[in-house]
Amino acid sequence: MQIIFIILALIVLALSVYLGVLVSRILNQKKVIKSQSEAMEKQLAEQTEKYYESLHTLALVMEQGQVGVAEGCIRIKKLIDLDNDLRFHADLADFHKAYMDFSEFAYLDDYKNLSKQEQWSQDLKRQQFEQKHEAKLVDASIKLKEIIAKYRK
């Protein structure tokens, strides 16, 4: 009878040790998951800050006339489309409207492959669209900077 109790006690002891090992592994995994989660949150915060900084810089150079209206509009439009809050923000609708005009032009290699006359024609039309949209896009750039300032707080 005592042998049975000793065997049962050893089984309980072995199971207790095994349970302790499992609990220890679970606690270690929780620590690893927590540190990974914190690292991911930090990385996301850094990426978000870089995103807003890029938008702010583009809006600033657009406002100051340091970048062409078409180029600035296209770059800002593509960036604000990455954020649902900004994409559908009413104060930024002018970027979407102007983008529709600017998106019909050839860029980079496509532009280089055009004949000189076609390039000249596109340049002239682009200048007309830039003049048409410039004031609205500068105002929209100022609004964008204000919106970004609110999001960064």
List its salient traits.
153 residues; mainly alpha; 6 helices; 84% helix
Write a compact overview of the structure shown:
This protein has 153 residues and is an all-alpha fold. It has helices at 2-63, 69-80, 84-87, 93-102, 109-112, 116-152.
Description:
With 153 residues, the chain is mainly alpha-helical. It has one domain. 84% of the residues lie in helices and 0% in strands. The protein contains six helices and no strands. It has helices spanning 2-63, 69-80, 84-87, 93-102, 109-112, 116-152. Helix 1 runs antiparallel to helix 2, helix 1 crosses helix 6 and helix 4 (93-102) runs antiparallel to helix 6. The chain is elongated. The relative contact order is 0.11.
Give the DSSP E fraction (strand runs of 2 or more residues): under 5%
Radius of gyration: 30 Å
Task: Compute the number of strand runs.
Answer: 0
Shape: elongated
